[in-house]
Amino acid sequence: MRVCDREKCVGLALIAGLIMCIGGVSFADGTDQEGTSNEQLLRQLRQVLANQDQMSEEMQQLRDKVKKLEAEKSTTPRGGWSLTRGQAQSQFATRAEAWLAEFDNGDSNGSNVRAPRSTSLDLSGSTRARWEASNNLAMKDFDDRRHDGQEFTLLRTRLNVDANIEENLSAHVQIQDSREFGEAGSTTGNLARLDLKQGFVTFSNVAGQPVDVSIGRMAVGLGKERLIGRLEWANYGRSYDGVLVNADPTSCFNIKGFAFKIDENFGGSNTDGSAAHGVDNDNNLVGLYGQVRPVEDDRNAVILEPYVIHLRNRDGVISEAGSGRDPQEITTYGLRGELNPSEDTFSCFEGFTLDWEVAIQSGDNGNDDHRAHAHHLGASFQPDGELPGTPKFRVEYNFASGDNDPTDSDSENFNNLFPTNHNKYGAMDLVNWSNMHQYQVGVDLHPAAGWLATIDFMCFMLDKDRAGLMGPRGSIGGGSDFSDDVGKELDFKLRWKATDAVVFESGYSHLFTGQFLKQATSGRSGADWGYVQMYVEF
Length: 538
Known about the structure:
Layout: H1 2-29, H2 38-74, H3 85-103, E1 120-135, E2 150-166, E3 169-180, E4 195-203, E5 211-218, E6 240-250, E7 253-263, E8 283-292, E9 302-318, E10 325-339, E11 352-365, E12 368-381, E13 392-400, E14 410-411, E15 436-445, E16 451-461, E17 469-471, E18 474-476, E19 485-497, E20 502-513, H4 515-520, E21 527-537
Helix pairs in contact: 1-2
């Protein structure tokens, strides 16, 4: 309104001034219209009125511009814009560019999706397809006369969501579909196999200390995963429900504590075999796993990992006496270590590596006293060469105790717990880390950039022939007069990393049956197994 009043005042002032000026001139001359006709005065008055109309039009245009700028100002984000058009456009462009950059992978962690309560949200995933074929292996008969060849294709698809909810709080969710080609039975079949593979939140820097706490369902691998593993080779893999605490009190020491619920069981049997409804018969796994890296200048030079793991199975197992189910309580004490000399540390052994693991078990296996142990020793050597194909030579020995007498109420078979055994005791997955001796030699070759070829030859023997062979594919019973020679396995594997996102892999294995398998099964022919796999990350 102040602008409009100012316009009227200016117009009236001009008219009044002009009239006064004309009248002043007339009166100053002492005559009425002397030298000036009435027509001239009218022309001058009309010119003044025309000037007023032009000024009114310009003032209206100015008023429209002001209203438009005020309207733009009322719709701006917090912080506002300047009323001048140039400044307004510049600030708008700056804000728009920042918003678009944030939406399109512009933030520091690469997030491209937003959630209401998250500072960032990342999506990723993977697809893995693997074709497998075997001969004389599915039935574990090792007999060409049975014609038990088998082939199938597995597909596993995963979708990952990682969210930073707020400072020191994050979440991870992994959805998985695992299936076999043709398993649905038709092109319209629905197996409803979608499952929560992982889903947990992590509280970081708890109480201002270097301690992280993860709660939920998670895939966990400790050490070389000989006892607690993720079993990624399997199409489903392993997941653990519970709590994982990770602490880094110093730069050279880390310790993890975990408590996992393996099986929630409200029923079961009492020790006398009767039904025990409402009794807590859960299967729990708790433990501590530490890591020490004492060489400050080279953290990988020496690695020591002490651990203690307790398995509590209240649902119980059948004792050697066979009188019902009794609770299982087994504690595993272990130490794993690595020695990786480099130019800066232990330079005289550069090119050599050494790793070992020792585990001792005690407790109760049902109504039996449990005492068992297992050992691993491995070494490798890679010559100092500049060629990309310089080979790496490996030797390895694995042992796990077996039970010599299955009727003496002493349990001596080492309990392998929840491991990732694939490619540790042969690619054919015939043997567990239990009642076994394994001798292995191998070589790794890099024929070209992105390519890895491995060859392994191993010999399997039983620790106690009466305990039989125990493996991921099932057990094969033994006897007191059986041989302890299980057989020999030859493995070939070729891996090609085509791009950062795509990996192709294939392998072939052959089993030469030993005297034990010839005695315990009907076959003497050996077995073959092979696969071709594609893995894509996105």
